[in-house]
Q: What sequence folds into this?
């Protein structure tokens, strides 16, 4: 805790901007030469840019649940969803209402709270944002490719596979719902306009609550596929639809920063910019460079993401921080700066407010890479030990300072480091388990379950959908 961070000041507003599948190398300030991100680059110039920041999962639902609760996904029952890597429409599982989220913690501390954009922590009414501390919510309950969308022959038909597994959907996803709080507000909305609508809703919320502490969680639906963008961004893009989607996110950030400045809230507001997991980085225009690996993998490219914090006068401007930190740190960090009460149950994150103030962090900070409910790797300081790849046991050691792209296994050269990190892996497994090895996790809590789940929408051929079926074939 930094002297004066709380004393004599109001609780800071917090704006948390989370992108979907935006990779480590997708922003100008992280080295992209294909995408134009002038506003986000300015955010970094006015704040602190992290080089070694990790989401707690390489895929959507576990990443989001972990960030919201300060816990590794297995801790909150979000390692695996009846054997699936993320939540699907109409599934019976979601974030348990006994968990404390960023929003419920901050609301209890006096904040106005708003969710805008993607959720993906359960689509049943019990699991929606309004049951998790958000006063209000506007957005879609899961990914933007989980609506009715063209399905050319030869592509993996996820809806059909899910139906065969007994997930309560037909052989096609139900119409994509746009929710206002718990109500389906629209079905199959115009995806091209959604980012601008999210910006407008964010501004409305900031304006309405400018005179009290507020927490805005803006979770973009892009750059997750399919990508629909406004023509002006497409025209200006040097990187196809992907670059246009990145530009639309940059523009939204400018809208929010402009509104904060107009209201005189710059110094009272922490603005955070990040992404839920790495880019797919195949042919779509995304990049995790210089990291190895993509979304879904436990090479760093899967879950090491951009993380920028701006808080004028509190977070030193124009700084680059190479401490190991994670999205699970947000909850205890927000508790510190907002003088909020931590949940009275185990969490995994730690307060990094001293790091944000420019102090050194813990050089022995440990980060656990879970993929599903199986431990895949551990990092401590400069060293990362891979212990599993898929179902296979591995023992590979990488120097994340000297070899950021994980190209050279140095396990044979550093036997003492391997032994030390293996012991840490065992300790983590003793608490959170490892399904691959048949190890129970006594520290795990269950996800929320409903007994009679049903999709939020049902296809009706007479309903006036904006898009009866989205025409792009790309899926995330
Ligand atoms: Mg994602």
A:
């Amino acid at each position: 805790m930094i002297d004066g961070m709380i004393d004599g000041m109001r609780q800071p507003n917090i704006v948390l901007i989370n992108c979907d599948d935006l990779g480590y190398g997708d922003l100008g300030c992280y080295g992209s030469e294909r995408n134009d991100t002038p506003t986000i680059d300015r955010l970094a110039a006015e704040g602190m840019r992290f080089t070694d920041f990790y989401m707690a999962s390489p895929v959507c639902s576990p990443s989001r649940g972990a960030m919201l609760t300060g816990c590794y996904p297995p801790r909150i029952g979000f390692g695996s969803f009846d054997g699936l890597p993320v939540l699907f429409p109409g599934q019976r599982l979601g974030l348990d209402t006994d968990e404390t989220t960023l929003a419920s913690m901050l609301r209890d501390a006096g904040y106005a709270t708003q969710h805008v954009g993607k959720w993906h922590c359960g689509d049943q009414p019990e699991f929606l944002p309004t049951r998790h501390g958000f006063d209000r919510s506007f957005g879609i309950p899961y990914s933007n490719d989980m609506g009715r969308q063209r399905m050319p022959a030869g592509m993996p038909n996820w809806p059909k596979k899910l139906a065969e597994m007994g997930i309560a959907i037909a052989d096609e996803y139900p119409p994509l719902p746009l929710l206002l709080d718990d109500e389906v507000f629209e079905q199959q909305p115009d995806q091209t306009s959604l980012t601008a609508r999210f910006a407008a809703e964010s501004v409305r919320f900031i304006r309405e609550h400018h005179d009290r502490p507020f927490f805005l969680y803006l979770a973009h639906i892009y750059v997750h596929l399919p990508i629909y963008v406004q023509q002006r961004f497409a025209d200006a893009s040097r990187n196809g639809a992907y670059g246009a989607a990145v530009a639309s996110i940059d523009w939204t950030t400018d809208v929010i920063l402009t509104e904060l400045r107009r209201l005189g809230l710059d110094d009272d507001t922490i603005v955070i910019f990040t992404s839920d997991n790495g880019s797919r980085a195949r042919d779509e225009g995304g990049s995790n460079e210089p990291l190895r690996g993509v979304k879904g993998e436990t090479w760093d490219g899967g879950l090491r993401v951009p993380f920028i914090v701006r808080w004028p006068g509190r977070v030193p401007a124009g700084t680059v921080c190479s401490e190991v930190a994670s999205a699970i740190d947000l909850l205890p960090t927000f508790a510190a700066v907002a003088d909020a009460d931590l949940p009275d149950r185990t969490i995994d994150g730690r307060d990094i407010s001293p790091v944000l103030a420019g102090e050194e962090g813990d050089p022995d900070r440990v980060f656990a890479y879970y993929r599903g409910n199986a431990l895949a790797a551990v990092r401590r300081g400069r060293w990362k030990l891979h212990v599993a790849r898929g179902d296979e046991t591995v023992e590979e050691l990488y120097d994340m300072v000297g070899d950021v792209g994980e190209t050279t296994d140095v396990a044979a050269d550093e036997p003492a480091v391997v032994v030390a990190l293996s012991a840490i892996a065992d300790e983590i497994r003793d608490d959170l388990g490892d399904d691959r090895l048949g190890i129970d996790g006594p520290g795990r809590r269950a996800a929320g379950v409903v007994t009679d789940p049903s999709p939020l929408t049902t296809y009706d051929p007479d309903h006036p959908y904006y898009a009866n079926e989205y025409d792009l074939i790309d899926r995330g």
User: Anything to note?
Assistant: Residues 387 and 395 are 5 Å apart (CA to CA). Residues 20-21, 60, 224, 276-277 surround magnesium ion (CB under 6 Å).
